[in-house]
Amino acid sequence: MRFWKKKTRTAVIVAAALLVAVIVSFIICFYTLDMAPVFNYRVLVHNYGAQALNVKMTVSVPLFSKRDAVYLYLGNKDITVNSCTDSLGNNRETFLSEDGIITIPVSRGSTTTIVYEANVAVLGKHGSRGAITGDYAVFDGDQAFLLPAEFSIFFESGLKKAVSRIKFDFDFQKEWIGIIPFKRINNPDWMDIYAITKNAFVFGAFEQVSGFSDGLSVFALPGQVPEDVSGFGSLYSYYKDLFGTAPPEFNVVLLPSDGPSGQVIGGSGTVTVAASFDRDSLRDWQLLSHRMCHAFYDNAAPYMNVHVAPNIWLNEGLVTYYENLATGALPETLKEKLGVDVDRQLTLTFNQYLYMRFKEPFIYNFAPMDEELLTSPAMTEFLHYTTAPLVVKLFEDESVNLGNSPNALLHYCLDENAFESTYTAIAAALDLLGDNGAKFCEKYLLGIEIPPLWDLKAHQPSSAEILESLNYIEILLANWQQTENEDYPVDVVSEQEFSLAMETINDGRIPVMSITLDLSLRDYCPELYAILNSYYRRASQQGFDLDDKDLRFKMLER
Ligand SMILES: [Zn+2]
User: Is the pTM of this model over 0.90?
Assistant: First the structure.
């Protein structure tokens, strides 16, 4: 009896001690731990004739969390929030700031459900950024998901506290397959969220095209599989050799280019690219090459600072430079059919660069390292896809001349140490270009000297092609200008105006440039010279001040 009593007493003491330990641990955890919330997205992907997804997002805040608010980035996403409720179904208050950040007050252990519609058919640079048709649904993560605002303000340490797990569930038609880049990401860092925004989420009656090596998969709708698919593998192998590594998997989804939604680019990231594709279009191969290069780059160099100005232009410059070189690796018959000529493409880019710099000197004369200061999307477009690949070309040429192995700049940029700061281009020039490094920085990175790529003259195409590509850049940049000022005038040069300019090429010289430059330009490309000469001659004849920054508006006013 006494024995049992003793045993009971011991058990009670142990139980009490355990209880106290649990309570104390709980209190310690309660006041010290700060666990991040879990985000869950349930997406309804059905063809109801609408171009919108229905998304039910839940944010679960752990008991051991100190968060009192969750911040989501709405920005300019085409998202309509239908409701925001707590676990009892009561409305939760939300606040939207001017910079597009939604604040939702939360408490420990709470669950918040946000139901929203996301329009996927938003117009992007290369077509609709998504589509929902009878055959497929495709969209990029940036359109579909309300993601932690800490991502958009490049607050990486804040991001760690913002979300501990992201989970996706998709409800789509039974007869469709899903090509889904991620289903769940634990402890996402900045690059993980970046990958969510960029990748395509694809659903549809796709079939897999056979004949590719490990790592690359190509999908197309039934009856739309291209006869010859060798080009995809050629690009993939080119990048695998160039980077020395490849994404664990890479899916290319070919969408029809004449579908009900017109041109579609439903996302392009490290795992999936889904876009309208016409095998006979050189532009489509160039775009695919560009997107594939980004995927390999982001896989090899997954660092946030790659995507922060003034490093973005370097990333885009390298990708645009190699996009072109990679097309040289396409099969010969395809290259012939498409008219691939790597040198001619570079020459056209240099022509476009010179044309816009001299035509709009107040807009397009800026140093690449001033990327952060750029004030318009037209300037960014010009820097990323026109100036930057030329600076990369010049860098690469100088580097090889100094005895470095080819592609030294790219390989330099794949090292994490290169991205300790956002001045990677400067560090690369100083490290790789020896005694010429400082001069290179001064002239082409921090200064506005023209990269002396005059030798490209040897690859000038026909006059008609030169005129077409100059008009192309004029229209492209004017379209960007018009997103901010709809009165911005477009100056397309007609064939007739072009003939007249060529006939009067010897009338004077271009007053806005030095004699040396005038001679170099004329020698490099007479067509380009004639058009610029005629532009400034007209301005002079009409009595305009050539240094007026509104010259274009005054000259082209109707
Ligand atoms: Zn790009």
Answer: yes
